[in-house]
Amino acid sequence: MAVSDMQTWTFPGCPVTPDASQPDWLALEKRFSWLRAMDGVPQSPIYHAEGDVLIHTRMVTEAMLASKEWHAQTPQNQQILYAAAMLHDMGKPACTVIEGDGSITSRGHAKKGEKMARRLLWLGEELPGPAPFAARENIAGLVRYHGLPLQFIDKSDPQRAVIEASQRVRLDHLALVAEADVRGRMCADQQELLARVALFREFCQEQACYTAPRAFADVYSRFIYLRSERGDPDYAAYDDTRCEVVVMAGLPGAGKDTWIREHLPDWPVVSLDGLRKELGISPTDEQGQVVQAARERARELLRQQRSFVWNATNITRMMRRRVIDLALAYHARARVVYVEAPFADIVSRNRARSAAVPETILYRLLDKLEMPYIGEAHQVERVQKA
């Protein structure tokens, strides 16, 4: 992403000058269906006496814009933080439940909101156009982790929780979103919650991950720490890998085959699409035989300590982990290469394929997509195709 792209990207309603007025909420609600969906969605009066999710979102956004720290940010980061404030609870309408005892919960709304924000910003739905990749993923990460500053101290391993999050999102920005989230509500324990945010800031600074990802001795040591349940982030692990497995990831038509031809033309490729053709199995049929055949070919290569490419969509962390676990069992290094293209290009390329995927499936895959993060493998690369 070019710097100029980021500098020209704006999220609707965000003031572009310090003396600009507050957002035009009537205009924004008319424009955004996801904002209208928040209207009337109830919240626990214990934690949100201000009212429904829409009222809270407006208050959070205005609290962000009133923050001196927000005004001190670069214009690019102001846009990202404003968008994160607007979108942080967009998953609540889909996740809010009134329990049998009358209590109101919204479990899983941060994870749901991350996927919704990614789709919104990638497709440019109801926006002037798609957001740049870096801005999109920063916003999605802030939505995903916006509750961490209030919850980290209750985690079984607070150190690991913040270090892991730092690999995906700037924690100083996360603290700003969390503070706005607290100031944008009415509750009896607001001062206690603000104290938690302050403690989060201090703790992250102590862990050397407040404004940048926590550094490790090397990529192998980072992977070992992030994969294990317990560990020392300062430990330099011994690298005993003997070969490498490159795990491709990305939607159909994103350009994975092209990347392999350009970067690893001589490597063996275990391709699920190729095996389907060999076995005469449609992508919509039962895939057990295809996966079993792919894993056996992978084992043959691993027993020979040969590096190879595993080529499939691998859109979820579980899909990728199955291959990575197999690689680790044979002392192989794992590298995830995620390939992405503008969604309109993906749709166009898919239509031109001899075995095109139904477009409804493409959108379903987009909604399921879990962006690879650095802790999944020894190395993670994100490739954006123009």
Task: Describe what this molecule looks like in 3D.
With 386 residues, the protein is of the alpha/beta class. The chain folds into 2 domains: 3-206, Hypothetical protein af1432 (Orthogonal Bundle), CATH 1.10.3210; 243-384, 3-Layer(aba) Sandwich (Rossmann fold). The chain has 20 helices and 7 strands. A 5-stranded parallel sheet has the order 4-5-3-6-7, sandwiched between helices. The chain has a two-stranded antiparallel sheet with strand order 1-2. A hairpin with a 5-residue loop joins strand 1 (97-98) and strand 2. The longest helix has 17 residues, at 190-206. 39% of the residues are buried. Mean pLDDT is 93; it is low at 1-6.
* Share of helical residues: 40-55%
Element string (H = helix, E = strand): HHHHHHHEEHHHHHHHEHEHHEHEHHE
| Rg for CA atoms | 22 Å
| Strand arrangement in the largest pleated sheet | 4-5-3-6-7
| Number of helical regions | 20
As for the number of domains, it is: 2
% residues in beta strands:
5-15%
Summarize the structure in short.
By secondary structure, the chain is of the alpha/beta class. The protein is 51% helix and 9% strand. Strands 4-5-3-6-7 form a five-stranded parallel β-sheet, sandwiched between helices.
